TrEMBL record:
Pfam families noted in UniProt: Alginate_exp (PF13372)
Source organism: Leptospira bouyouniensis
Biased composition (Pro residues): 39-56
Chain ranges of the Alginate export domain: 112-586
UniProt-listed InterPro entries: Alginate_export_dom, Alginate_Permeability_Chnl
Protein name per its UniProtKB record: Alginate export domain-containing protein
Coiled coil: none
Disordered, as annotated region: 34-71
Length: 614
């Protein structure tokens, strides 16, 4: 009996062990009667290997999810922000974006660009007494590498060389100074020349690292990079210049569906040397010292026909030290920090990479920005300082009597409207008003400051009216009325006619070109147009009448892309100066009788460039 119970208990334990250990033994085998060898199951019939679905010609097969080798999704679809360093046509953009042959290891993309450019300018100061013909040839060479090494890491390096043909510095006399010796050295004799030209042709236009989340919603970009928002009217790549804009910055971007938010901070000037590197911007060398540029930009596209942008960008400069110090050796400052804020908005229906969602229809854009902040300087009121003699003492730091801080109070407004009845033809109008200053000696700076804006846009990558192609008049103290007529043929290229009419906003202010204020020659009182700096000459009969019309400019632009990687650009501009310049050059009150009628109204600008980019 005990043996029978023992066998029963042993069988139950063995059955439970097999049941929970294998999970495949059934209850009827709990107490085996005799040991049997199970027959092997029949072999499964052979299955055919899965057939991959046919791929479309020219389309990369999708990467397997469990594949250990990463294939960049940008291969054959390079994002536009990775070739912002080029001024190229839409056909060239498409070729660069879809190129696959220049990718290697499925994660790296190399590229190259060369852009020789010839310019000819005539009588740009509208003065018959000066010899003013300039012919130059310059060249831009770029080599870049994009590395999309993982879903979370991307980098880009763009090496750029920009040089003026024949502008090399070579030691020697006469013929030995011709710029034909590459990387030649030079000896500088400071006893014979006060100003020393130094060539600086080559450097990194871009060198940044992107760290991003796998879903691409958040990205941090660190290093030398191009900041470009909207039309580039406030801050842009400025590829119209061979040098272009680049910033040493950190930028964070959040993208959620149709919304994007950017914050960035850039160092644009440094006071101190570091790690055996020398700064050229120290106040000891006459530079601005420490300066930074930072801001925020928010964009949303609630519908296909509406894009909304709001932004605030700030340029901040350090305060300036006076020569003297206190008896205890502490510093004295003659100028407080200079902070220029540019805040504004932009509305447009060009929501597809700054182009219309459809090939035909009406396009429009409205942008407005205001500049506020303080210059850091102090100024006495006009009733005791009409001639500007009372200023802050840069030696002692003492402020002028009854002084008040100087504020920024400037603005810009731009509006565009265009109609494309057929995809080959567009006609548009534009109005831009950039504020001027009626009194440059009082407690406000009212002349708009474009700072880092893209200058010439009429013939650039943006196919809409911008500033005039010559760059002889720009958006400061100006009302700019313009028409933009474009015809684009797939065979014959793009033809653009773009006239501008420029008028002063404030007659007392000067006029400005791409490089800021136009000073004029000493023979004409060092002013290029009729001005009243202190706003004190309104009733002076010996002063020329203040003129309003600056100039009329007509631009003819032709662009053709005969090959997908090569384009040719030709531009011709003719300008006729208005009474704001004529009244200054033809001045019967000029003390020198030989300089009373120096006005020459016509000026011209011609440019030709070839752009090769892959």
């Amino acid at each position: 009996m005990y043996i029978h119970r023992f066998k029963l208990i042993l069988g139950l334990l063995l059955g439970m062990t097999l049941l929970f250990g294998s999970g495949e033994i059934h209850a009827q085998f709990i107490t085996p009667v005799k040991k049997e060898t199970p027959e092997p199951p029949p072999a499964a019939p052979p299955t055919a290997p899965p057939v991959a679905p046919p791929q479309e010609p020219g389309k990369e097969p999708p990467a397997s999810e469990d594949s250990s080798e990463y294939v960049s999704p940008m291969k054959g679809n390079l994002a536009g922000e990775y070739f912002k360093n080029f001024q190229i046509t839409n056909k060239q953009k498409k070729a660069i974006q879809e190129n696959k042959s220049l990718w290697f290891a499925d994660r790296f993309r190399v590229g190259f660009g060369i852009r020789p450019k010839a310019d000819s300018l005539y009588n740009t100061d509208f003065d018959r007494s000066t010899s003013d013909i300039r012919n130059t040839v310059s060249n831009q060479t770029q080599f870049y590498l994009v590395g999309d090494v993982s879903p979370n890491i991307t980098f880009k390096l763009t090496f750029q060389d920009v040089r003026l043909w024949g502008g090399e510095i070579i030691s020697g006399a006469s013929d030995q100074r011709f710029g034909v010796i590459s990387n030649g050295g030079t000896t500088i004799d400071t006893s014979k020349q006060r100003e020393v030209p130094l060539n600086n042709y080559s450097g990194f236009r871009e060198a940044f690292l992107d760290l991003k989340t796998t879903n691409q919603m958040f990205r941090v970009r660190t290093g030398r990079q191009i900041l470009d928002f909207g039309d580039g009217r406030i801050v842009g790549a400025r590829n119209d210049s061979l040098n272009g804009n680049s910033f040493d910055a950190v930028r964070a971007t959040v993208t959620i569906q149709k919304q994007s938010f950017d914050v960035f901070g850039a160092i644009v000037s440094s006071e101190n040397n570091a790690n055996s590197m020398i700064t050229n911007n120290s106040t000891r060398l006459g530079g601005p010292g420490n300066a930074s540029y930072y801001g925020a930009h928010y964009g949303i596209k609630p519908w296909e026909w509406l894009g909304i942008e709001v932004y605030n960008f700030t340029l901040y400069k350090q305060r300036q030290k006076a020569t003297n110090t206190t008896p205890y050796g502490s510093d004295i400052y003659y100028r407080d920090p200079d902070q220029l804020n540019t805040s504004g908005f932009r509305l447009t229906n060009r929501t597809k990479s700054n182009a219309l969602p459809k090939e035909t229809g009406i396009d429009w854009m409205v942008e407005a920005a205001w500049q506020t902040g303080f210059t850091g300087e102090r100024v006495s009121p006009d009733w005791i300082n009409q001639n500007g003699a009372l200023k802050t003492n840069k030696v002692t730091g003492e402020a002028p009597p009854h002084s008040e801080p100087v504020r920024y109070k400037a603005n810009i407004v731009a509006a565009q409207l265009g109609y494309t009845p057929v995809k080959e033809f567009r006609i548009g109008i534009q109005y831009v008003q950039a504020s001027g200053d009626p009194n440059r000696n009082d407690g406000s700076v009212a002349t708009y400051n474009p700072i880092f804006a893209t200058r010439r846009m009429a013939g650039g990558a943006i196919p809409f009216a911008g500033n005039g192609n010559s760059g002889l008049v720009f958006w400061q103290n100006i009302k700019d009325y313009s028409i933009h007529i474009k015809y684009e043929s797939s065979k014959w290229g793009t033809f653009i006619i773009n006239p501008h009419w420029y008028y002063k906003v404030k007659l007392q202010d000067g006029y400005y070109d791409n490089n800021n204020y136009v000073a004029g020659s000493k023979a004409t009182g060092e002013t290029a147009s009729t001005e009243d700096f202190y706003n004190t000459e309104a009733y002076n009969p010996n002063r020329p009448k203040l003129g309003k019309h600056v100039a009329t400019e007509i631009n003819l632009i032709y662009i053709i892309t005969p090959f997908e990687n090569v384009s040719f650009w030709f531009g011709a501009s003719s300008l006729y100066a208005g009474d704001a310049i004529r009244n200054q050059k033809n001045n019967p009150y000029e003390t020198d009788p030989y300089r009373r009628y120096d006005f020459k109204p016509n000026a011209s600008f011609f440019t030709f460039q070839t752009v090769f980019a892959i």
